[in-house]
Amino acid sequence: MKRLVYIICLILAVSSICAQQHYEKLKQDMQDNVTIHESSAITSLLNEKVSGTTGETKQITGYRVQIYSSNSQQTAKAEALRLEKRVLEENMEVEVHVLYTPPFWKVRLGDFRTKAEADLMKAEVIRRMPELQGDTYVVRDQITVKK
């Protein structure tokens, strides 16, 4: 009886060692042979999204920095266009939107998805053009973004 127990223990030990070696080989084979199959349409969509080449835009609710608003019929348009030119000369790398919503002329900067982004631009405008500090604030607006 002792001999039978001894033989069974020996067989279990050997099979355990063999199973461990088989598991390690199987694990190594699985790491070396990973294949991903995807449609070429998925690849092209991802490339377009990363490179931004779709060219399509859409309107969403976001934020802009307003630096001017006036309803003075005599000077508002000229002042709005002057501010647009000045911002472009400052090379602030931001979209400038001159808007006329009767009777107001407005100058707004950027197309920001978050208020935090707009706040950073507001601080930059005030740093570069301190005389606009009292007229500069963040407003919710329809912004243009790439799809």
Can you give keywords for this protein?
147 residues; alpha+beta; Alpha-Beta Plaits; four-stranded antiparallel beta sheet; 4 helices
How would you describe this protein?
The structure is a single chain. The protein has helices at about 1-30, 40-50, 75-90, 115-130, and strands spanning about 55-70, 95-100, 105-110, 135-145. It is of the alpha+beta class and about 150 residues long. The chain has a domain at about 55-145: Alpha-Beta Plaits. Strands 2-3-1-4 form a 4-stranded antiparallel β-sheet. Strand 2 and strand 3 form a beta hairpin. The mean pLDDT is about 85.
Report a brief summary of the structure.
With 147 residues, this protein is an alpha+beta fold.
The protein's oligomeric status is single chain
Arithmetic mean of pLDDT: 84
Taking the sheet with the most strands, its summary is: 4 strands, antiparallel
CATH class of the domain at 57-146: Alpha Beta
Tell how many strands the DSSP assignment holds: 4
- The percent of residues in helical segments reads 40-55%
According to CATH, the homologous superfamily of the domain at 57-146 is Sporulation related repeat
What are the low-pLDDT stretches, counting only 5+ consecutive residues below 50? none
- Give the SSE order as H and E letters: HHEHEEHE
- Which percent range describes the beta-strand content? 25-35%
- Total number of helical segments? 4
